[in-house]
Design goal:
Elements: H1 5-8, E1 34-35, H2 37-45, E2 54-57, H3 59-69, E3 75-77, H4 80-85, E4 96-99, E5 118-123, H5 128-140, E6 145-149, H6 158-164, E7 173-176, H7 179-188, E8 192-196, H8 204-207, E9 213-218, H9 226-230, E10 234-236, H10 249-261
Parallel strand pairs: 2-3, 5-6, 5-9, 6-7, 8-9, 8-10
Antiparallel strand pairs: 1-4, 2-4
Helix pairs in contact: 5-6, 5-10
Amino acid sequence: MSSHPERNAPRKGKKPGFQPRFHKRGERPSEDWIWGWHAVEAALANPRRGPPERLLATPERARQIEAAFGRLPGLEVQDNGFIAQNLPQGAVHQGVALRAPPLEPVGLDELEAGPGAVVLMLDQVTDPQNVGAILRSAAAFGAKGVILQDRHAPRFTGALAKAAAGALEQIPVARVVNLSRALDELTDAGWRAVGLTGASGQDLADVLDGRPTVLVLGSEGEGLRRLVSEHCDELARIPMPGGFESLNVSAAAAVALYEASRPRT
């Protein structure tokens, strides 16, 4: 028995009979779930994923799933409350949650360096909502892929997958140990790296020339790190005539992708 009785006393404000929820032995933490209809639907349709390990759905969502994919292994018909108990607090699951084998990253040599091709490289952008939104913009503007640093990027589940709204299943993602070395490798393969920074004197539109381009974006707080910026071929800014100092990194990515997608003459 504990020598500290207060540790065993019920917490104030908890209802009688409250029991903490524990994961089953061997069960992965809740962050490994994908939730939200668009994210789950896209994951189920992706042949690069294996069969669902576990799939929770309300009766209505279960009917939608079976109509689109047939009877899937691991499908459990549950109510909204049960689904919510398996997810992080506040997760907007829309009646469906999936635990599936993870997506395997692609290699840098698998990114297609054709005329006008664009990929994004994120330098220590760690917020799942931002990365998910960036993936969504990358899919919308036809980017060829996204490159992340392996140790400074969020997992491809949960809030990230929800924010990506299915784009996670469409956009090739490469994870690398060292961004500077990756930029050297991409340069040798015919890519041109353009780092985005407000300190540059060049506008992005004046730097883009239609060649295969890596758009490199840094974190909102620190921006591009020095070594990463030194390995870029050009540094450019997004002009902001309204006088506001900076954009959210996902908004900056969308603006940069739009500019890069415009035809060059």
